[in-house]
Amino acid sequence: MRMTSNCIVLVFVTLLGTLPASLFGEESKPQASLNVEHRIAAIESGRFHGWPANNGVWQWGNDILVGYTQGDFEVKDGHNISGRQDSLLSFSDDGGETWEMIDPENFLDDENKLFLGKGKTKLTEPIDFTHPGFALRIFATGYHGNDDPTGGFFYSYDKGRTWNGPYEFTGLVEHSELKGNQLNPRTDYLVQNGNHVLIVISAREGSRGKARMGVIESTDGGLTFDFVAWITPEDPDFNAIMSQTVQLSDKEFVFSYRKIYRDSDKLSTVETYKSTDGCQTWNVLSTVKVMPTHSNPPALVALQDGRLCCIYGDRQVGEIRGRYSSDQGETWGPEFIIRDDFMALESDPDSQGRINTDCGYPRMVQRPDGKLVAMYYWATAEHPEQHIAVSIWTP
Question: What is the pTM of this model?
Fold first, then answer.
């Protein structure tokens, strides 16, 4: 029998330890546990909050800003969100221990409808990418609360309290590598100096092609943009989307992304590439995670001790998991569990018998004291409406 909002039951998502290892392979067996503290960055009765990876995270020491999408909470197949979907932010000035929800004016949404690139202009004064309160927010099309096929950006000088924009990627859409493409990137950028920023994007030919990922840059403070290089190949079998990239040295970069096979028997993955020449060329590095169903994007951080940490939502079992690498992403250590108490008000399982573990899409930063702070969307017995949760631990 199909459940409606008048007939709702509480379903506990089975923990991995009760499932046969042969179902998911040895690499899915968690090998380590953590001493983790949990917080909440955004919650509101009757409202759904989701997808930090679609919206971005920014950090200035112990000041952390995370973006997410908010809508009405409605139990249904797929995502439990309905109505208008707004892009909001939460701010912490104590390393993620406490949070304040904020909704700045002139940020992605107008008063009457979803943001559709309305009012985009060309930037006329260069941005100082090294300003102490600088934040850049990329927007494009193809995900919740954003719909603009040529993309653009907002920027802030006061840690996200106020924003300037929306601005065009001036000069980009005419580039031979991107002409006719639809842009669908998330916010993934690396400041090089006051005038120079590298931005990782995803793009697809027309509106139906498979997305691939590449790098663009501005060397004049955002006045114009140029294409640098493709990272992933053009391939009709998979979409390459939802990245997070870290810089190891002046010329070394490691890029992680969500590889989704839609029309194939192949399993989706989280994979990495590496560049050793300043993003001009890229080579496949490693696979972090194989995801049997319900794939999830990665959050990647270069730790103070030289290791990498990559985390992701495992929707197969309703957990937030991760791995460390001690060799700059060439290999990954045992999988560890960050959180495993997912519970939600759910509609019926889908046609394949899967419960909708609607969670994950993390972003992550490392505090000055060394602790990691992960932000993701989650639901528990106490708070069954999806909210933005925070986990803090020592790596």
Answer: 0.90
